Structure formats: C-alpha cells, structure tokens
Write the structure tokens for this entry.
Amino acid sequence: ANGGQVDFSVDNDLAVYKSRLLNEYTKFDERYPALVRLVKAWASSREINSAQHGFFNSFGLSLLVLHYLQNLEIPILSRLNLRDEEWDAWDQDWKVPPPPLPPGIQDTCEGVEIRHYTQHELRGWVTQNKMSMTMLTHGFFKYFARTFPWDTHLVSVTSPGLVPKSSTNLRSGQNSYIFIQDPLEMDDNCARAIRRDTKKTVLAEFERAYSLDFHEFLCSISTHAHPRTHSHMQPKAQMQTHTPSQTLSQTQTQTQTPTQTQTQTQSQS
C-alpha cells in the first residue's frame, strides 16, 4: 500500500542469513539504509531494478551501497564477515581496536558457514566520517560511473579494496559482465542477470545520475518522474521539476552535516 518493494524467498533458508547480515550493518550508521533507499528509488525510476529483465535485484543494490561506504577514504562501515586471513586488515579508521578474534561460526546453512560480527560485539564502533547524504549520493554515482573498474574487478563487501574477477571461481553458467559477489556464497554473482547489452544501459544510468545535482536527482526519482524510456539522458533544461517525495526529503534533512564538515570532506566525493 505504501509503494515499497519486497523480495520474496521461498524455501531458501540461506537468504534469511543474508538479510540478517545486512540488518547488522544498518545498526551501525543510519546513512547506510538511507542511501540504500535512495539508490533503490533511483533504480526503480530508471527501470533497472528487475533481474527478470536483465538488471539489478534488490539485494545487489544494497551490496553496491555497502561496498561504496566501506571503501571511502574514511570508511563509514567496515566488513563484518572478514575471513580469517583478512582479519589483520581491520580498518584503522575505527576508534576501537579489533576484537580479539575473527568472527566465530554462528551457524551452518546449506553447507555454508555463517560467520560475522554483530553490532553488539562491536558496540564501541564509531566512524570518523561525517559526510552528508548529499555528498554521499553524489560520491556513490561518481564512484560507479567514473572510478570502479567494472570490466576487470568485482564488487565485494567481504574483502578489502578492489578484488579482481580472476581471483574468484564463478559458478558455471553465470554472467560476470557486472559481478557483485555474494557475501556468504563467494562463488555466486548477485548481478548474474545483467547481460552485455543491459550492462551498457546500467553504466549509462550511473553516468546520467552523476551528471545531476542533488535537487535534480531527487526530482528524477520522485513518484511522478517519467519512466526511463521517455526521460533517458534528457538534457538538464528539459527535466521535470516535480516535488520529491516526503520520504526522500526527510532523508536529506535528517542527515545533513555542518558546513565545516562538508568542506573538510568535499574532496572525498
């Protein structure tokens, strides 16, 4: 009734654990779920949020945002399910030292070990990053439009830095034009539905979003925005100026930071 999107999973217990992992991340910083909502609204307005039609699924979009926030110069989020060999790469931007041990095994599901830190275990965690939602949104689209090497690397929320596609044995039969690595099933591509032709559309949409200022971006994803087939790559002068939805306006207002902080972090976006 409220226009929200819901992913249904039938007879897939592992999906429950993946949702729980993402939920743990939302407890650390409210900017993560806020940016996820903005990105999902953007993908919906541009009609690139349907795996059935060769685009992203909801889980993959959430992982894109998570990866971006983990890889800022001053990370907003770190990696809760570090593997043993990566535990020593604990982010140095945290105020607290790493836990004494890597995350323990919480459960086993369909042969997959479920292991990650929880917000309770890391309750002393505080990020030094004070970027506003305006800066983060602009930086997100800049990162994926101009910086991320889509042809050679995969999107990972488990391993630090950029991870080459060649380092992972992808499941047989899956596309890797855009590779978003599943955080629990490392050989699974959450963007496997994206084809060669739809990849071009996706990259063009990242570029288009990056070219807009924040007000134009909000207008473009409002509930009255035209479908992508009619407004794709419109010049700025021809864009509609509908009022953004109340939810998006509240998100922007609640996460603004002082002008001084924006100045200090402008170079990161």
Summary: The CA atoms of residues 68 and 76 lie 9 Å apart. The radius of gyration is 18 Å.
